[in-house]
Amino acid sequence: MALTETRGRSALSRTAPPRTRIRPRPGRWLLVAVLSALAVVMVFPLYWMVVSALTPGGQSQSGSFYLFPADPSFDNYAQVFSTQPVWRWLGNSALITSLGTALSVVVSLMAGYALAKFRFRGRGLLYAAFLVTIMIPIQVTIVPSFLVVAKMGLVDSPWAVILPTVFDVVGIFIARQFMLGVPDALMEAARLDGAGEFQTFFRVVLPSCGPLVGVLVILGFMTRWNDFLWPLVVLQGNENLTVPVALSTLTNNPAFSSPWGAVMAIATVTVLPLLVVFLAFQRQFVQGIASTGIK
């Protein structure tokens, strides 16, 4: 019996086709090389920023190109944090960005839900009017917006930056596209069980909008954290500035012989919140973009 099993295994081993090792295609190696080169190109400005921040006076003082300073130091950080209200600038940016993003996400979710699931007269015209405002540049509306903010007495306050950006047309558009994919049967079942509109939204629709919330948070946070023009117009006091506006004031500051080291030192600090938010919501961001159908 053992001899028969041995002969059977040897026969199967002779008839079984040999395993072929799959070799990577040349096109795949080319794709990896191209993507690696693009990654280096995208990351190099961040690396250059860190190197300039660790160079006394910045790279502009050396007059030569190098990838790492011979004598790295944190003098730029110590000088700018001791002479400028950097922590106040960071606090202003964090307050304006966090509160503005939270309010904008709430408004975008509820407006997108209404435009996607409610049937009312003029809905298409209203949605078209929303989309038209995307094509209007901010330079056209900046003077009327400033006059409105000035009449309300909000100039040089965080609310002057927060309130005009609560209504985010791009966020409403993305929310509406996502809400169209939510089954109407879920809402009808909730209404049959006696749930009101707010209960249906918060208990049935909102729990399925995790990817959408990730998209809105990342886009809203990055837009408000990097916003420059509108805070430059409505914020006047030095201690009330946001980080992007404050960086522009350092280039002409007589306290620094070469301001680029100080600018790069603050820039390296301001990049960290963006990285933290993106890493926290990157999975929801990818899922949300795929769900809305935006390519």
TrEMBL record:
> Where found in the cell?
Cell membrane
Entry membrane topology: Multi-pass membrane protein
* Alphabetized UniProt keyword annotations: Cell membrane, Membrane, Transmembrane, Transmembrane helix, Transport
Q: Which Pfam family, any one of them, does this sequence belong to?
A: BPD_transp_1
Is Transmembrane there in the keyword field? yes
Q: Region Disordered: what ranges? A: 1-20
Record carries keyword Transmembrane helix = yes
ABC transmembrane type-1 domain ranges (all copies)? 90-281
Q: Which PROSITE patterns match?
A: ABC_TM1
For this entry, the protein name equals Carbohydrate ABC transporter permease
Which taxonomic lineage is given here? Answer: Bacteria, Bacillati, Actinomycetota, Actinomycetes, Micrococcales
